[in-house]
Design brief:
Number of helices: 12
Number of strands: 9
Number of domains: 1
Shape: globular
CATH topology: Rossmann fold
């Protein structure tokens, strides 16, 4: 059972990840109030950091986190412009989001973590490794790629949303997020995730679209040396399996897994299978902190 405690804190070098209880907090990170959650776990286990996708907040990880609770310390957060976090000042790019995550992990005194990023969260995970490899023990890149979409696609989405709102394209997005089976059999859940999507602030959503549009980690992927697994739903309409496989081939030694019966958000649609894959991958990681240059 989660015990939620809301606090607003300033960054403090002595801050430590809470290992005894669940906390939901706000911290002043760069120019924004950033909303995050920590969940306790054994001190000897690596921290797992979850970064969510465009148009969502950190609640999409709930059904994975409850299956990991008690076994690993967990950090998850709402990116600037999403959920309860501030939007912040424009312009914003992926490096801005990377810097936010760096500051959050420093605030929590977390290093050598397993970073699990979904979609744009996967881009941020790649950027974090590029900037601060000392913070990363391993990467779980879920339904993401080294480069997602084209400038025309993202510019078209930004224009549509600025003209008519997120609601105008929500149904098309949900078709890429979830399989036909989920959409037909989970009507209540589908309505809830539609609400999550359309209630994101337009300015925050479009700023994140622009950040994805301009992000390209094609060259950086070849420099990743930590253990990495690339995971994708077999019916992902946003980052299809072939695209995720192309990223896996760029990363030396990366594993590649396809989840059957899932669209773009397997942590919602197939959380049990995704959790099993995460656990199996983590079990293969060397014990102790990894050496750094």
């Amino acid at each position: 059972m989660f015990i939620e405690k809301y606090q607003f804190t300033e960054p403090d070098e002595s801050s430590k990840l809470v290992l005894e209880e669940t906390t939901v907090q706000f911290a002043q990170i760069n120019d924004i109030a950033l909303h995050y959650q920590t969940i306790g776990g054994p001190a000897g286990k690596p921290v797992i950091v979850f970064a969510n996708s465009l148009g969502t907040d950190f609640r999409i990880w709930r059904d994975v986190i409850v299956r990991l609770a008690g076994d690993f310390p967990v950090v998850t957060y709402d990116k600037r412009g999403q959920g309860l976090s501030d939007i912040g000042a424009a312009p914003v790019n992926i490096e801005t989001h990377v810097d936010d995550l760096i500051k959050l992990l420093n605030h929590l005194a977390v290093k050598d973590a397993i970073i699990c990023g979904l979609s744009v969260g996967g881009l941020i995970a790649q950027g974090l490794y590029e900037r601060r490899p000392d913070l990363v023990r391993a990467l779980i890149l879920c339904d993401t790629a080294h480069r997602i979409g084209t400038p025309d696609i993202w510019n078209g989405r930004i224009t549509a949303i600025e003209s008519n709102g997120i609601d105008s394209i929500a149904d098309a997005i949900l078709e890429r997020w979830f399989t036909p089976a989920f959409r037909s059999q989970q009507a209540l859940a589908l309505a809830g995730y539609r609400n999550m999507l359309i209630r994101q602030p337009v300015a925050g959503y479009t700023a994140l679209c622009a950040a994805i549009r301009d992000a390209d980690y094609t060259l950086a992927a070849g420099r990743i040396t930590v253990p990495t697994i690339c995971i994708v739903g077999d019916q992902d309409g946003s980052t299809p399996p072939d695209l995720v496989l192309s990223m896996a081939k760029l990363i030396p030694g990366a594993r590649y897994e396809v989840i059957k019966g899932s669209g773009h958000i397997p942590c919602v649609e197939q959380p049990e299978i995704l959790t099993e894959i995460l656990r199996a991958f983590i079990d293969t990681l060397p014990s102790g902190e990894k050496p750094h240059d």
